[in-house]
Amino acid sequence: MLLLSRLTLVTLIIVYSPLSFGNDPDSATLALGSVLNDKGQPIELPDKPKSDFNYSPPPIEDSKRSSTQSRVTKKSSSKKAKAKSRKQRLASRSSVANDPGCRWLNSRMNSLDRHLSSGVNSRNRHYQTELKIRQGEWECMKCGAEGPEQSDHATCQYRR
Predict the structure, then answer these.
(1) Residue 33 lies in a domain
(2) Compositional bias (Basic residues) at which positions (predicted)?
(3) Most buried residue, 41, 52, 94, 147, by most Cβ within 10 Å?
(4) pTM of this prediction?
């Protein structure tokens, strides 16, 4: 009996309450595609989307650069580059074979070159020694050209 009276009381409160889920006749319905701000005022949406991130860099003056660039091009075209021999390509580090050992060796030799950039002295002489050893490995593993074969990894590795 007590439960039934509470149940009817709650339903009456919901039905006659101004906070009920029914539509309030005073409030305007929200049209499709409209947006409201935090105070309930409508916000107008632009017809075309635009971005503030559109940026175009200022034009570069090419007058100075093109004249020096043309001189460099003329000099390099007048001297024909000779094709490097296989031995020169093996010793060169201008290109690196697609091999993880060769890539590591190249980065290590670059690091050693950076250490030696200030000159060789008694404190960094060990870098010069290691660089000579790594250069020998580079040539043995053919890292400047086609890369090492399977057996080259064991035969070319420096033994301490």
Answers:
(1) no
(2) 72-90
(3) 147
(4) 0.46
